[in-house]
Each structure stands twice: as C-alpha cells, then as structure tokens.
Amino acid sequence: MTSKAVQQQVSPQNVHMPGELASMMKKQGYHFVGSHSATKICAYTASSLKGEGTCYKHRFYGIRSWRCIQATPAIGCNLACTFCWRIIPEEEGFKWNEINALKEWDDPEMIVEGLVKEHRRIISGYKGNEKVNPKIWEQANDPAHVALSLTGEPLFYPKMNELIAAFHKRKISTFLVTNGTMVNALKSLTTLPTQLYVSVQAPNKEAYERITRPKTIGAWDSFMKFLEVFCSLPTRRVFRLTLIRDENMVDAKGYADLIKRGRPHYVEVKGFVFVGGARNEKRNLSYTKMPSMEEVKAFANEIAKEAGYLVTDYHESSNIVLLCSDEQAAKSRIIRFEK
Predict the structure, then answer these.
(1) Angle between helices 160-169 and 108-123 (to 10 degrees)
(2) Are 271 and 243 within 8 A, CB to CB?
(3) For the domain 3-331, what is the CATH superfamily, name and number?
(4) Please, how many CA atoms are within 13 Å of residue 63, restricted to the half-sphere of its CB?
C-alpha cells in the first residue's frame, strides 16, 4: 500500500488525522481518546512512581507527579514552533490541515472518562515493578491533576468550560497551557483552570514569527490582544518561556515588557531541550542550542531585574527557574489541593 493511501485511511480509533501520522504518534507513546484528544505518560510521572524524582510542578506548586495526567483535548495547532517536541505534519510530508475545525466535537465527560481510563491503563504496567511503592501506585490510579499541555492548542476545543468543570467535579485540578493566540476562546472562558499558562516564545515580533512559524495571519497581534485579557483573569496566571541559545534567549527587557503587559503571578524560565520533533533537520536546531542551567539562571535574573519580579526557585533536572511577581505570590505558590 502506498504512503499516500495509508495517510488517507482513518486511524484505528477514528482520530481526526491521517492514519499514518496517528501510527507515528502511537509509536511515540501517545494514547488517543475519541477523535481529537490524547494522553501520554510524563517522564516525571514514571520516575515519581519509581521513587526517582518528581517534576518541577511538584517543587514549585505542590502537585503530586504520580497523580498527574498529561493530555490534550485538541491535537492540532496553529503554530509550528521550532523548539516543539511534537510532529509537525507538513514536515513529515502530510497534507492534513490540522487547524480545520471539526464538524462535531467529542463530549467533555467522555473525554475526561477516556483520559482517566487511559491513564490507568498506561500505569498498570508499573504495578509489578519492584521499584514502585504499592501505595503510590494506588494513589496514581486516582488522578488529582491534569496538565492540558501535551500537544496542539487546547483552546481549539470549543467546550473548554464544560471540560474544565468535568475535571473539577472529579476534584482533578487543571493546568491549562495555551499558545496565546485564541483570544475569543480565552474571552469565552467562564470556568477557569486551576492554573492558566501562556507560552511566551519570543521577546519581539521578528523573533516570534521566525520561531513560531504561524499558520494563521496576525499571530503576534493576537498574542498581544490575548495578554490584555489574560492579565486580569481571576485565576493563577503563568508565563512559560522556552529559551533557545542564540535564537530567543535575547532581549531580557523585551520579555520584561511582555510580563508587565500580561501580569502573570509566576514566570517559568526554561531551557530548550533537543528532543522529539525539535530534532527535525528542517528546524535547524541542535544540542548546541540547549542552554545550561547556569545560563538559564543568569538570563532569568536579567528578566527578573527588568520586570521587578523575584527569583524564587529552580528545578535543575528540568533546567527551569521560577520567578514570582511579589512576596505574596512566592508565599502562596504551593497549592492546597482537594484530594
């Protein structure tokens, strides 16, 4: 069967993408739920189950890494960021238009149920591992957190209010990560996540367009408008910076200006990692673009000085530094979760 014919097949689970692309993602560890959602075990979920270390969200905010689902309700994205670990369809020869809206979107309750079920199925293989504490494994089967950050742009999903509410009804906290271009979707949020992240890919328009390679017109302008709404939302707000040496690890003042515009409670300054799709030769990246922990700390200090933020903590294995807006944010960063 030709590659083109395979691409036109519907994937075994009727995922809204070319079948061959779905197969590639399955080989990478993605588990699909319904027609447009997916989950994949986080490396820190696996390591925390084995007592080998927890993620930065555990250190910074108190989440239990072994009880966290890594997922997305929308696989497609309107950006093609060079540093992203995801497979970008056109780079692999697929003609699938991933930003086309579906005619029908899956039910939020079905997505939540499916993600929890897949999470339990994934971690079932850890039960017999001699490194795994049985009590921790039992807790992991009752997820308490979901990071809607796996791949794609979660705000593509038009029933986000209902999805967040469905998670919260199960007492599962929500950490929603968006690329900051879906302004109308943000305005329509009446049920807010526990913590709302926006990815800040560059300090200025020129670098932003070069690094994000947007698939829609006016992405930078949309990002600016997004921050105008983001800055006043009554939930915990976070900026996520992914720094690439010699690419966007420049202009600390530019980042500080964006921070002043978006007014996040927290800023995560993280070093780029040369993994997954970022290794595609079409993106012109390499191991040499990965900044060291010391470089990330130094640049985070520059940003903090320009923005008037506090350098509060860091997580070395994640190569990430936490900035807090003030002393109150620093004192309240550890969340008391319901379960």
Answers:
(1) 50
(2) yes
(3) Aldolase class I (3.20.20.70)
(4) 26
